[in-house]
Specification:
The protein has a domain of 26 residues. 0% of the residues are buried. 56% of the residues lie in helices and 0% in strands. The protein is mainly alpha-helical.
């Protein structure tokens, strides 16, 4: 084996890596959260969503 010899990668390892790369920010089954924001307005929507969820949880706990 020479210095430039590379280890052999099987097709199964390549498929696992490709599946991971293609599913990095894709929706998941029963997903309960939003994906990462790509704009400033979406960041504002996410912050509003978090605050509203907290407020509704507090209201439900104290009223219910």
């Amino acid at each position: 084996m020479g210095v430039l010899a590379s280890p052999r990668i099987s097709a199964r390892q390549i498929n696992k890596k490709m599946i991971f790369i293609t599913q990095c920010d894709s929706p998941a089954l029963w997903q309960t959260y939003l994906s990462d924001p790509a704009s400033i307005s979406m960041e504002g929507i996410l912050i509003f969503n978090k605050h509203l969820l907290f407020l509704l949880t507090v209201i439900v706990l104290f009223i219910g």
